[in-house]
Design a protein that fits this description.
Elements (H helix, E strand, L loop, with lengths): L1 H6 L1 H21 L3 H12 L10 H4 L7 H8 L1 H9 L9 H10 L20 H15 L11 H10 L7 H11 L7 E4 L4 E6 L11 E7 L2 E10 L10 E5 L9 H4 L1
Antiparallel strand pairs: 1-2, 1-5, 2-3, 3-4
The structure holds fe (ii) ion.
């Protein structure tokens, strides 16, 4: 992991984020403790092959050429090759190899790497693919704007059954909510709010608990705590996520 951090700080942070999020998701899926540990390691090492991808390809801020895409795609195979000799010492390495190799394979098998034998993604690879996309989309990169959490969730929905396991996408949305904790949202009343707790009722995931952070477009202190599923707040509905930076809102102040 130290070599990855030295090579590319973003990749290191991304691997750690995917690990933490995958464990939280796995917990919600009801995985046993030892399976959660396996999932965490699979997610942590999923992109380790990027250590062998030149930085000019890894951080290219223009569209990659076909040749560069092929180089980038090789990170899946590089990781599998690096991990393979460790199987003898730790049988759990097989899970890590499969996740690294298959996390871009897609649910319908149409992704990469193209393998001679047709395989389907392992459970850990399917989980990692979803979490990987969510973290990559909601992080600002040189070549990509930071997508809002509801946009990332919408994309996962759109490609459920093609790129992603549809059942796992449904479970992920139930776990995160349509508006994940920390999201800044615009309400039907014109107020802005920060999501602080998701609604565990799958029929009410669009009604999380929030803190209202504005009053007449001015930031307010303290922020009012509101349960949007409570009948008293029937007139307050979430319209969409907004970029907190645009309004000078530091959402972490309200969540923790
Ligand atoms: Fe990857």
């Amino acid at each position: 992991m130290a070599s990855i951090k030295q090579h590319d700080d973003y990749t290191f942070n991304h691997m750690v984020n995917v690990c933490v999020l995958a464990i939280a998701f796995g917990q919600r899926l009801g995985l046993r403790r030892q399976d959660l540990a396996q999932l965490g390691l699979c997610a942590l090492y999923h992109d380790m092959g990027k250590l062998h991808i030149p930085l000019e390809v890894l951080n290219a801020n223009t569209n990659l050429s076909e040749k560069e895409w092929a180089v980038m795609g090789n990170h899946t195979v590089f990781a599998a090759r690096t991990l393979f000799p460790l199987i003898e010492a730790d049988r759990g390495t097989v899970n890590r190899i499969l996740t690294a190799l298959q996390h871009h394979l897609r649910y319908d098998g149409a992704g990469y790497p193209r393998l001679r034998i047709r395989t389907t993604q392992s459970l850990y690879a399917r989980i990692t693919a979803i979490v990987d996309t969510f973290d990559a989309m909601t992080t600002k990169r040189i070549y990509q704007r930071q997508y809002l959490p509801d946009e990332a969730i919408a994309l996962l929905h759109r490609f459920a059954g093609e790129r992603y396991d549809p059942l796992l996408v449904k479970a992920f949305v139930n776990c995160m909510g349509i508006y994940p904790i920390g999201s800044t949202v615009a309400l039907s009343t014109g107020e802005l709010a920060v999501v602080v707790e998701s609604n565990p009722d799958p029929d009410r995931i669009h009604q999380p608990k929030v803190r209202i952070v504005t009053d007449n477009a001015q930031l307010t202190v303290p922020a009012q705590f509101v349960d949007l599923s409570h009948p008293v707040h029937r007139g307050r509905t979430i319209r969409h996520c907004v970029d907190p930076e645009k309004y000078g809102i530091n959402s972490s102040h309200y969540v923790f």
